[in-house]
Structures are given as C-alpha cells and as structure tokens.
Write a structure and sequence with these properties.
heterodimer, A: about 250 residues, alpha/beta, two-stranded antiparallel ribbon, about 25% helix, B: about 325 residues, seven-stranded parallel β-sheet, five-stranded parallel β-sheet, 8 helices
C-alpha cells in the first residue's frame, strides 16, 4: 500500500512574525522555516504504518519554492522513501494545492493520503477536505487515531464535544490532529541516507493546474493589541475588581 | 445576493453559533435561508425559524445527517448550492469538516474563519494564529464559500417567524459510515459559548488538580478549558483545548490558571472581554494580555478564590 504525505514549509512555530510595514504580507526575510507541525505528525503516522507492514512506500510531496526541498529531505530522513517537489514561486492557495495533489494521487494510486489538518501560517484548514472532494474519496479529518482493517480505515476524530469515530472506504484522506502521535527526530545516519533518496522536480503546469491565486489579498495588518492591565496583590482584591470595576461576575 | 447558511446543532438544539453566523450571513447578502440537516431535528428547524431577518428554513431530516458526516453533508449542500450566491457556516469542527468539500466541488476558494464582513465580497480573517489579519477579496462572479469565526459576531435576535420547508435527502455517496461518538457529559455551559471560562495549563500538574478549577467553575457557572500543554500531558481530554488549533473563545471573563501564554494559546482567547491570569512566574507572557494579574501559587490562590467567592455568595 502506497501512502502520500503532502508537507508544507512554513515559518517555524516558535517565531514571532512581523507584518510588513506596507501591509502587503508577512516579513519572511531571515526567518527560520520548518515543516508545518501537523505535517510532521502526518509523516510520522505514515512511517509507523510502514514499520507495522501496512504501508510499503511513502511519497512526500511539497509545493512551493525550491527551498521546500529541505522540507522534503526532513521527511525522507524521518522515513519517507522518495519526494516530489512541485515548484511555485508564489503562495499557492489550498484549492490549487488540492488540484495538484489530486493529479499526483491519480498518477500514484495511493490507498491513503495523510496530511496536516491545517498549516500554521494561513490557518485555512482546507486542503485535505478539498483533495477528498476532488478525488471523490472519504475523509477522516482531525484524526487522533487511525486503524486500518479489512480494507477500511477507522478514524477517531477530535470534534467539538469529544471524539467521533468514522469508518472510511479506501482509498481515503486523513488529516492529523495533535494527539495522533509524537513525531520522531531524524537520526544522523538517516539524515545522511535521506540525501541519496530521489526527489522529482515538477511544476504545476505538469499536472495541468493553474496555480495562480484566486483570492486578492487587499492588505495584511497587525491585530489590535491588548494592553497589559494591573497586578492585584490578593485574591480579595481580584474578586473586588471583577465584581465592582469590570462587572463580569 | 442570496445566502445559504448551514445550521449547527445536535439534532435537539440549535447552537448559538448559528445565530452568530446569521449576523455575518445577513451582512453578506439576503435573503438568508437556513439549512438544517439532521435526524429528528424538527425542533432545531423551529428554533432556526426564529432567527430574525432570515428568509426560510430548509429541513432535511434523514438518518444520514445525524452525525454531520462530511460526505453526505457536502452532497446535500451541493444539491442546493445552485440557487445561492454564497454558502456560509460557523467554523466549528463540523463546518470545517464539510465546507472545503463543498468549495472544491464548486471550484471556488473557501474563505475560512472570517471575523468581519467589509463589503459584499471583502472579508477579514486571522492568519498566523491571529498575529496578523488578512483582508481578502473573493473573485467576482464566483460563488462564495465562507466559514465564520462566531466569537467575532453578535448573535442575531430570536424574534423572527420564518417558514420551515421540508426537503428531501441527497444521494448518500456511501463511502463513509458513522461508528461511534464519545462526547463529554457536563452540566456546565459549553466552552465555545460560555460567558465565563476558567482554563488550566501545565501548572495544574495533574488531571486531579483540575477539580480545583471545577469548584470555581460551578460557583461562577463557567466552562472549564485548558492549554495544549495540559491536554498533551493527559490532564484533560482534547475538547478542553483553547488555542490556535483548538477552540477559539471570547467570553466576558477568561481566567487563565497556571498558563504561561504561548502565542498559540493566546490565539484562542485574546478576544475575551476581561482576562485574568494567575501564575507564579511574574515573567509569564500571559500577564502581557491580562487585565488583572495575580502573581501567586495557584495551589494557594485557587482555594482562596473559592473561599472568597463562597463568602460573597457565589454558588
């Protein structure tokens, strides 16, 4: 069984981002970039499936600038077998990403595509669901557990009130939530080995996809800032303020 | 511009999120029709009909909609989509699940988690965990598919009396099935809509210690939440998580206990009206957003708070 794992290169989750003064976007100059944390969980899940003998091959895919190759290398060092880099100079919206992935899925015929539930840069939370729609496959989003059995995937999902379990026909799409697993760190020997693993270089046009943005970004601004308030000395003072000053209890 | 608003509910009651999303939908255009897809959900449709300003309620009552599975939900919405210029729902776990399926099938981009409607085709949404706000314009002439961050909108009045029209189910794609649900049972208000939220973080040290917060929650009729650190440590289940990738809340009062205040957590609560932080580390970033900060050991402060609230007649 082949598993595809699409991964995104994003600003590292520890970085405090800066909005550009001209309001055109986020300042990405000299900012540390990493694999989207949810995608690391996706890679880990695929590698575990391979270690259990359920998966035979893992293909890591990234769409974006040439530097995404580093992100693919990270996935290869974690245990993916080969990579596909689809080069795009600008931000590619979730719908276009899903179209490229759908074309790759049609060519590669995986039984499972595992991807992060959202990227921590644009926070869209769309790509997996869109890919499922374009392929006509079922989806198990926000997964905290995935069990493959009898040609189906049983996926436990983190929902607003607790957990929901669904059974999906294969092939299927799974998007990862935080509790699915804890991603491994790649070992040095595996990082060395990853350098020899193949990465195909493609472009959106190779898949017949127009990756031009459809949404027009008018501006990107700083959110309204909250001011720090006052320190209270005692619990009694706190209750008094909440009751008589803020009037919220 | 006609709008289809998909209701959020549990087959028995309509969630307040729908009344809030209705406010956003009415700013986008009118008429706004509401789709209630559920099983045995007539009461939900009747409640939705009371939302002021809407056109009509469409009720699709069928077993396949009981658990809001993405595949049948998207199939139903797509069957209705032709008549509408915009399709809107709240950015809840289920809205986030089915809506992008609808958008991709219609070949339009989705605009996720809008916090304001700036024009009929212009919207603002948070990116980077709310550390930046992006204003986007949807492509002209295309259908708009939108999820709404409901904490950013006031609930519409419940003074209307729209008609309820029963519609048939769409063909179930038959590629997914519901197995089970494990939902937390609580007498307390829901985290997403509670007026007061008290949340614990890593500083709580154990799941057992969350009972300290339960006591305060009972006195103040508050919901209990948690930081990711507390959920990852197994102190409380996932549905407690407040943050970038958990729930976004904006109550009247948010009390953060033993939470340091990582940007990912702040993303989920910084729009609260009043924020209280109780933490023994006075350098904790949470104090930078707190209206009232108390530098104290929570294991002393919380029992004291319980005592003080009791003395003042709460609970």
């Amino acid at each position: 069984m082949k598993v595809l794992v699409p991964i995104k290169r994003v600003v590292d989750y520890n970085v405090k981002i800066r909005v550009k003064a001209d309001q055109t976007g986020i300042d990405l100059a000299n900012v540390k970039m990493s694999m989207n944390p949810f995608d690391e969980i996706a890679v880990e899940e695929a590698v575990r499936l391979k270690e259990k003998g359920a998966a035979t091959e893992i293909v890591a895919i990234s769409i974006g600038p040439q530097e995404c190759q580093e992100t693919i290398r990270t996935a290869l060092a974690m245990g993916a077998d080969r990579g596909i880099l689809v080069k795009a100079a600008h931000d590619v919206e979730p719908l276009a990403v899903a179209k490229i992935l759908a074309a790759i899925a049609k060519a590669e015929s995986p039984q499972l595509v595992i991807l992060g539930k959202q990227a921590i840069d644009d926070d869209s939370n769309q790509t997996g669901q869109m890919l499922a729609a374009l392929l006509g496959w079922p989806q198990g989003t926000f997964a905290s557990k995935v069990v493959l059995e009898g040609g189906k995937a049983e996926v436990t999902r983190e929902v607003d009130g607790g957990l929901q379990t669904v059974k999906l026909n294969l092939p299927a799409i799974v998007t990862t939530d935080l509790r699915l697993n804890e991603p491994r760190y790649a070992s040095l020997p595996n990082i060395m080995k990853a350098k020899k693993k193949p990465i195909d270089q493609k472009e959106p046009g190779d898949y017949g996809v127009d990756a031009a943005p459809r949404l027009k970004v008018l501006k990107v601004t700083e959110p309204p800032k909250r001011k720090a308030g006052v320190k209270v000395k005692t619990v009694q003072e706190l209750v008094d303020k909440l009751k008589n000053e803020a009037g919220v209890i | 511009m006609s709008v289809l608003l998909v209701a959020e509910h549990d087959n028995k009651t309509l969630k307040e999120a729908t009344a809030k999303a209705a406010t956003a939908a009415l700013k986008i255009g009118s008429p706004v029709d509401i789709l209630v897809a559920g099983s045995g959900a007539k009461a939900v449709a009747d409640a939705a009909a009371k939302i002021a300003g809407i056109g009509k309620v469409l009720l699709a009552d069928d077993a396949q909609y009981a658990n809001q599975l993405a595949e049948p939900m998207a199939a139903l919405i797509l069957e209705l989509a032709g008549k509408y210029d915009a399709i809107v729902t709240s950015a809840s776990a289920s809205g986030k699940n089915y809506m992008p399926r609808v958008a991709a099938t219609l070949d339009v981009p989705q605009i996720s988690e809008i916090v304001s409607v700036d024009g009929p085709d212009t919207f603002t949404r948070p990116i980077y965990a709310g550390n930046a706000m992006m204003q986007v314009q949807a492509p002209g002439g295309a259908k708009k598919v939108i999820t709404v961050r409901t904490t950013a909108f006031k609930a519409a009045e419940m003074t209307g009396s729209a008609s309820v029209e029963t519609i048939g189910a769409a063909k179930n794609p038959g590629i997914s099935e519901f197995v089970k649900e494990e939902l937390s049972k609580s007498e307390r208000p829901e985290l997403a809509s509670a007026k007061i939220v008290i949340s614990g973080g890593r500083g709580m040290q154990s799941g057992e210690n969350f009972h300290l917060l339960d006591k305060i929650a009972d006195r103040l009729k508050a919901a209990v939440g948690a930081s990711r650190a507390a959920v990852d440590a197994g102190f409380v289940p996932n549905e407690y998580q407040v943050g970038q990738t958990g729930k976004v809340v904006a109550p009247e009062l948010y009390i953060a206990v033993g939470i340091s205040g990582a940007i990912q957590h702040l993303a989920g609560m910084k729009d609260s009206k009043v924020i209280v932080a109780i933490n023994k580390d006075e350098e904790a970033p949470i104090f930078q957003v707190a209206d009232y900060g108390l530098v104290a050991d929570l294991f002393k402060a919380i029992p004291e708070l319980d005592e003080e609230l009791k003395k003042q007649g709460y609970g």
